[in-house]
UniProtKB/TrEMBL annotation:
<dbReference type="InterPro" id="IPR050166">
    <property type="entry name" value="ABC_transporter_ATP-bind"/>
</dbReference>
<feature type="domain" description="ABC transporter">
    <location>
        <begin position="28"/>
        <end position="257"/>
    </location>
</feature>
<keyword id="KW-0547">Nucleotide-binding</keyword>
<dbReference type="Pfam" id="PF00005">
    <property type="entry name" value="ABC_tran"/>
</dbReference>
<keyword id="KW-0067">ATP-binding</keyword>
<dbReference type="InterPro" id="IPR027417">
    <property type="entry name" value="P-loop_NTPase"/>
</dbReference>
<comment type="similarity">
    <text>Belongs to the ABC transporter superfamily.</text>
</comment>
<dbReference type="GO" id="GO:0016887">
    <property type="term" value="F:ATP hydrolysis activity"/>
</dbReference>
<keyword id="KW-0813">Transport</keyword>
<dbReference type="InterPro" id="IPR003593">
    <property type="entry name" value="AAA+_ATPase"/>
</dbReference>
<dbReference type="GO" id="GO:0005524">
    <property type="term" value="F:ATP binding"/>
</dbReference>
<dbReference type="InterPro" id="IPR003439">
    <property type="entry name" value="ABC_transporter-like_ATP-bd"/>
</dbReference>
<protein>
    <submittedName>
        <fullName>ABC transporter ATP-binding protein</fullName>
    </submittedName>
</protein>
Length: 280
């Protein structure tokens, strides 16, 4: 940060994106979180700092505690050990409930509600009157590629559209931190890469901070400012990799030498962990 501002004031940096300058203040600091379920240690000494405006992806073998970590950050569960700081203030995990917008692994669209009414669910539960909530959601439909579909029901939508409804619900619930648990996991690869580019656009437009779970390594690198590689159970942060690829990111960046080099490095770590979880 200091480097950036110094560089700007001295005028020798030609273009620094505004995001790079505003990023930095800590939203959430997780320190040495440990979570056990009976004899199983799901998380062990997990420390993560989440800074304003960042896009952080979390990758790790299945069962390594990714969803457990999310539940804690969403205030749905408490760690057995460790500390949490919200805007540098020490808090209890439960205080995070309602502070974070959370999209669970299943899209949880209600089959009897229309697109519009599914999108407003979280803000309606929060107390926004239905008419006002609907008006807010209507304005957002075009950006989410859902214009004209407001009266459709979930079963009438493609997989990608369903995920956009769930994402719209999460965006409408305006919180500075969003947790997305494998939102594109069930999509075919073409739809998936379209959704990734689209998500980056709306993330920049809405200036949110995102913690995103995936088990797809290309996705983890493509989206992120930082990738956290988790170890097999007990889940620890095994590696933290900064991704300094330029933004906006184009689809063909995945074939660049820089991207491939990062991918090789991460793959080696991930494969080691997957073998461990396979063997256990
Ligand atoms: P991931 O999302 O990385 O696949 P999870 O966080 O869902 O992993 O699970 C991590 C470990 O904790 C798994 O072994 C899982 O069985 C266990 N676990 C998760 N939630 C519970 C729970 N509520 N009760 C008991 N065990 C749980
Ligand atoms: Mg999970």
């Amino acid at each position: 940060m200091t480097t950036n501002s110094a560089a700007i004031s001295e005028g020798w940096v030609e273009s620094v994106s505004p995001r790079a300058v505003t990023k930095g203040s800590s939203i959430l600091g997780l320190q040495n979180l440990t979570k056990r379920f009976g004899a199983i240690t799901a998380l062990e000494n997990v420390s993560v700092d989440i800074n304003k405006g960042e896009f952080i992806t979390v990758i790790g073998p299945s069962g390594c505690g990714k969803s457990t970590l999310f539940n804690i950050v969403a205030g749905l569960d408490s760690p057995d050990d460790g500390h949490i700081a919200h805007h540098s203030r020490a808090i209890d995990a439960r205080e995070l409930l309602g502070q974070v917008a959370f999209m669970p692994q299943q899209d949880l669209l209600l089959p009897w509600r229309t697109v519009l009414d599914n999108a407003i669910l979280a803000i309606e539960l929060e107390g926004t009157p239905r008419a006002k909530a609907r008006a807010q959601a209507l304005k957002m439909l075009p950006e989410f590629g859902l214009k004209g579909f407001e009266k459709h029901y979930p079963h009438q939508l493609s997989g990608g559209m369903r995920q956009r409804v769930a994402l719209m619900r999460t965006f409408l619930f305006r919180r500075e931190l969003m947790l997305l648990d494998e939102p594109f996991g069930a999509l075919d690869s073409l739809t998936r890469s379209m959704m990734q580019r689209w998500l980056l656009e709306i993330w920049q437009h809405h200036e949110r901070t995102v913690l995103f779970i995936t088990h797809d390594i290309d996705e983890a690198i493509f989206l992120a400012d930082r990738v956290l590689v988790m170890s097999a159970r007990p889940g620890r942060v095994k590696l933290e990799q900064r991704i300094d690829l330029p933004r906006p990111r184009r689809g063909d960046i995945v074939t660049s030498e820089e991207f491939m080099a990062i991918k090789r490095r991460l793959l080696a770590e991930i494969e080691e962990e997957s073998m461990k979880s396979f063997a256990s």
